[in-house]
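Why do we care about 3D structure at all? Because function follows from shape, and shape follows, mostly, from sequence. That is the central idea of this module. The next example makes it concrete: a single protein chain, its amino acid sequence, and then its structure expressed as tokens.
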Amino acid sequence: MVRPAPQVTQIPALLASGYGQCNPVEPVRHNMYYFEDGVVFRADDTLFKIPRYMLNIDKEIPAESPLFNKGRKGVSDENPIILADVSADEFLLLLKLLYPKTVFGSVSLVTSWSESEWLSVFELATKWNMQSILKAIKEHLYACASPVTKILIGQAAGFPDWLRRGLIELCLRQEPLTLTEATQLGVEDAVKIALAREKIRSIANVPKSVKYHESKYGGCYIHESEPRSLMPYSQHRMIHHILDETFNLKAYDNGDLHIGNPDQ
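And the structure:
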């Protein structure tokens, strides 16, 4: 796309923002993630104490990451490692994902997470280069992400399949873009999606029947269409071509051109 792609660290703008330095309020220990021995972290006004062996989760964690800290900080409540740009809720989500069996004896708690929760741990794991868990996070996030989220992550993180899938879902669904979606995407992308939707409908809608519909403005006859999952294979190719041209995408070369039905 023409406009600059957002950075991965900008993705949490979809979520509630409000990061900042820890304030003078007396911090409290977390009731579950504060162990007897370990490294003390402070996020917002909450203290977490995590056993050091739990932090040895990824050899590729960058030295600037607070998880990499080997200095004198983190040895006590009075001298914790301060996570100034991470909220307590965000850090807690990461801990729940990393150590569910240690505390709960089960991994079931994360199976019901929402998009915003998976997006939060994705951003944090990406920032701290936690490669060992990013693959699993991406799989869960992809499964529950909205089309707009797929597009934004696809742009920011360089995931072309995410970008294309998000565009397909928006362009083929029955409902037009909402005002919120258009705002998140930006004017240029929102207009391009509207153009792509019109082009796709010119080749994808196959009249099935004509039905009479009544409204407050009077009645009219409307053509009903076949489900898009029944489109001829040649139309699947044309849809990819329209997306390539409209959004200046790299030609799709994954072999499987099947579109599917985003309304299902």
